[in-house]
Amino acid sequence: MTFLQSVSWKYKLGFVVILPILAAIIVGGIGAANLHSTTQTLRAELAQSQEHQSSASSVLVSILNVDRSLQALIAADTPAAIRTHAIATIKAASQVDESVQRLQTALPENTQVAKLSTLLQDIKQRQMRVLGAAKKNLDTDALTEVEAMQATFDDLVAQAQRIVSERTGGAHRAGQCQ
């Protein structure tokens, strides 16, 4: 007790005032560190979700480009136009493959992406037959092949749209948390 009696009131009062301020600074620092960590985690999840959504959208756009290219190829009459549209069709089909591969890399466990890949493999042989018939300017044969693959193509587009809407919903939910 002698120690406390020997300390002046000025120091006792200063200690009583500084102690709660020091506790508030420590609690505030811990809270700021937690808030920063949560923000960084959310930012990373949002960036990943946007990347997935972009990959899914890229697949859908690529699929639609293939359809457009096939239609233009069938409609082409001159050898030069047929060649140009055949090259565009092959390029568009290659872009679909690359887009699906990127999406599979981004979402390896997603069953919808696996189904999309399976549908794409199912449609490839028919696309090659359409390409071959169109290059020979056999429009009726090419149109017959297109009609035969239309149901699978519609499933492919629907699957891609489901993936895009799923990814868009995920990005929207992550954005709401910010």
Could you explain the architecture of this structure?
The protein starts with a helix and ends with a helix. It is rod-shaped. The protein is an all-alpha fold and 178 residues long. The chain has one domain: Four Helix Bundle (Hemerythrin (Met), subunit A). The chain is 92% helix and 0% strand. It has five helices and no strands.
Fold topology:
Elements (H helix, E strand, L loop, with lengths): L1 H5 L2 H67 L3 H28 L4 H25 L3 H38 L2
Short description:
The protein is mainly α and 178 residues long.
Q: CATH class, anyone?
A: Mainly Alpha
Helix content: over 70%
Whole-number count of domains: 1
Indicate the CATH topology: Four Helix Bundle (Hemerythrin (Met), subunit A)
Mean pLDDT value: 85
Radius of gyration: 31 Å
H/I helix tally: 5
Proportion of residues in β-strands: under 5%
Q: pLDDT under 50 segments (min length 5)?
A: 171-175
What is the global morphology? Answer: rod-shaped
Series of secondary-structure elements, N-terminal to C-terminal: HHHHH
Q: Sheet bearing the most strands, described? A: none
